[in-house]
Amino acid sequence: MVGARGYWFHHFALPSYDYEKDISRYRQLGFAVANEGTAPADHGGGRAAYIDTTARLPGMVEIMEIVPELTAALQELETTAANWDGTDPIRVHRFR
């Protein structure tokens, strides 16, 4: 991507409450699934896919299946960011 278009965003994520429907919608619009995976069962087993939208957008769209474990991890990340005092920019964040 950098060679073809320069520096830009890689992807942005969209939550999905109906993963199969959302993936199907992008396929019907002519976009291919570039990469797809499933989180381990102990992390909720949620699925995610990168949709290659680079023909129309400067990056990809990630579809993230909303499962309770993902919601909890994102809430933890949001709280960590909101409470950051500007010091120690490199820290370890552990998702459950």
Describe this protein's structure:
It is flat and about 45 Å long. The protein has helices at 2-5, 19-28, 68-82, and strands at 11-16, 32-38, 47-52, 60-65. It has a 4-stranded mixed sheet with strand order 1-4-3-2, with helices on one face. With 96 residues, the chain is an alpha+beta fold. The protein has one domain: 2,3-Dihydroxybiphenyl 1,2-Dioxygenase, domain 1, CATH 3.10.180.10. The protein contains 3 helices and 4 strands; from the N terminus they run αβαβββα.
Structural class: alpha+beta
Please identify which CATH superfamily we are dealing with.
Answer: 2,3-Dihydroxybiphenyl 1,2-Dioxygenase, domain 1
Shape: flat
* Terminal Cα span: 32 Å
Q: State the order of secondary-structure elements, H for helix, E for strand.
A: HEHEEEH
Specify the helix fraction band: 25-40%
CATH architecture: Roll
> How big a fraction of the residues is strand?
25-35%
How do the strands line up in the largest sheet? 1-4-3-2
Average pLDDT rating: 87
State Rg: 16 Å
CATH topology group: 2,3-Dihydroxybiphenyl 1,2-Dioxygenase, domain 1
CATH domain class: Alpha Beta
The profile of the biggest β sheet is: 4 strands, mixed
Low-confidence stretches: none
The overall strand count is 4
How many H/I helices? 3
Task: Write out key terms for the chains shown.
alpha+beta, 96 residues
Short description:
30% of the residues lie in helices and 26% in strands.
Layout of secondary structure:
Layout: H1 2-5, E1 11-16, H2 19-28, E2 32-38, E3 47-52, E4 60-65, H3 68-82
Parallel strand pairs: 1-4
Antiparallel strand pairs: 2-3, 3-4
